[in-house]
Amino acid sequence: xxxxxxxxxxxxxxxxxxxxxxxxxxxxxxxxxxxxxxxxxxxxxxxxxxxxxxxxxxxxxxxxxxxxxxxxxxxxxxxxxxxxxxxxxxxxxxxxxxxxxxxxxxxxxxxxxxxxxxxxxxxxxxxxxxxxxxxxxxxxxxxxxxxxxxxxxxxxxxxxxxxxxxxxxxxxxxxxxxxxxxxxxxxxxxxxxxxxxxxxxxxxxxx
Amino acid sequence: xxxxxxxxxxxxxxxxxxxxxxxxxxxxxxxxxxxxxxxxxxxxxxxxxxxxxxxxxxxxxxxxxxxxxxxxxxxxxxxxxxxxxxxxxxxxxxxxxxxxxxxxxxxxxxxxxxxxxxxxxxxxxxxxxxxxxxxxxxxxxxxxxxxxxxxxxxxxxxxxxxxxxxxxxxxxxxxxxxxxxxxxxxxxxxxxxxxxxxxxxxxxxxx
Amino acid sequence: xxxxxxxxxxxxxxxxxxxxxxxxxxxxxxxxxxxxxxxxxxxxxxxxxxxxxxxxxxxxxxxxxxxxxxxxxxxxxxxxxxxxxxxxxxxxxxxxxxxxxxxxxxxxxxxxxxxxxxxxxxxxxxxxxxxxxxxxxxxxxxxxxxxxxxxxxxxxxxxxxxxxxxxxxxxxxxxxxxxxxxxxxxxxxxxxxxxxxxxxxxxxxxxxxxxxxxxxxxxxxxxxxxxxxxxxxxxxxxxxxxxxxxxxxxxxxxxxxxxxxxxxxxxxxxxxxxxx
Lengths: 207, 207, 276
Prior knowledge:
The complex is a heterotrimer, with 2 copies of chain A (207 residues) and 1 copy of chain C (276 residues).
Chain A: H1 4-17, H2 24-29, H3 37-50, E1 56-61, E2 64-69, H4 74-80, H5 90-102, H6 107-114, H7 120-128, E3 132-137, E4 145-149, H8 151-157, H9 169-174
Antiparallel strand pairs in A: 1-2, 3-4
Chain C: E1 18-20, E2 23-25, H1 36-45, H2 49-59, H3 69-85, H4 92-109, H5 126-147, H6 175-189, H7 199-214, E3 221-222, H8 233-248, E4 252-256, E5 263-267
Antiparallel strand pairs in C: 1-2, 3-5, 4-5
Helix pairs in contact in C: 2-5, 3-4, 7-8
């Protein structure tokens, strides 16, 4: 007959080696049903406590018990994971670049710069990521939304402010674009009506 | 900067979560290379000691470090884990032994030693297990494939290198069966009795 | 021909097992009589002629280094004969080995010529002995390999579930990626306009976004509350430029009831109803 500690050692090994959650019934089979379900439950609780504060935790799921990594450690683990991290499409990256460097901008502005239509999914992807949001609406026909980057965007890119984005004026120079056309207009004026419309009624703001 | 204990917690979580052995270089990537290899090696040794006496052990294999269950616990674990790897026939095991101890060898070499044809299924079974693969082709008519064992073979047998295979020389100490140079036409002299190394003189074997 | 007893029980070959009439048969009968039912099993139990020869040698405790060829050949041929009588399909290797054994046996009967200055001519059995010993070595190695703890059979890899539900894998973007994307845009467009974006302008634009957020509720804000003197003159200037730019783009409305009265700023347009 195994001692409680030995039972616990076997339980731990079985759970660590199992790819799937194990039920109490599964775990009882480890001992040919010679250890009671209550004892196993109690030892599982002890095990769970023993693992507190480690990178891996013992959890009780609907389908049984299993060891799993704590979410906080995911950022370390994914660095060794050979799996390639997903990448944003060029459309998403360019849209993000335009919003970051030229904010606040409307979708129309982005389309003007990119020369192609911007799919709603592109904007949605960036909004879902919490990197951009609507900061206002431009007073123009259709009152298009004006997008800007968020605090989370700066945090995720490790920037303290937009100033820390790589400067791109030197790039312009290197591309021999330094000399602006005489009638150079601000980049976004195309969509921005010259005559500002009168302010709208003050209204209760949505929280 | 993480404390040594935090580094150890991350190392443990990463190794517990990885199905494949991790090298020191892999483990350094966990910390964006900010923790030195020596520190990691030392912490791995500490971890290994911390796991002594448990059902799971940290081992150093051909392709890196890995947690695995101790063989003593297999009799419990197999009760919940009925899935077992195939039990190999003598033909497969002998073929594997020839490849492991005499690599690189061709199928012809294996047939010379065993004295029978080697069924393609035998080679396939070992290839499917990931234990052997084609390492080159011998410069001979037909350019036969030369087989060798893989890292997975060493890992699965818990070895760091081929040196750790059990020595078999003591079995027939009286005979010089040293393999001929690898580039000699047939790796195993069974096919060329003419230049075979002289067999030992008949000796009285001690009973 | 010498017949030495060289090997102890530990050298006895792993006897093939078979079931005859439901009873386990541990080893071949000494007289080589093989129960018909078991024959097929035995044939399969041997991995080939070398394996069979080794079995015969070890079973009879023959000295592998000084094989009595006549005896061995007789036993071997008996065995092959039994197999042939049973009409079992005999692998060609068994017949080749039979021929080889007979050839060695006949050479053993001939006197070995000794040439001046040379060592004794090679024993006709040498090659066979070498092959038998090498095969025996491999047999032992195979057995040892099989006895080693093996992943999946004797131990299991630990692979703890990686919990990813809370920390979902998201694409990583670096600031340089954005610069690269911008560069790409410039290259494509060959720029219809002058897209000069300077650090200063960026700051202005950042403050434009910030100010629009601060004014999101659409309410009037007192002009001075939009400035944070604690952040220094540069920021004050940039904030002011942002306000001017917003005004120019008609995104905010600046009002003053009379000279020197407080200046109020508020967002133009509908408040962010949709933002919720």
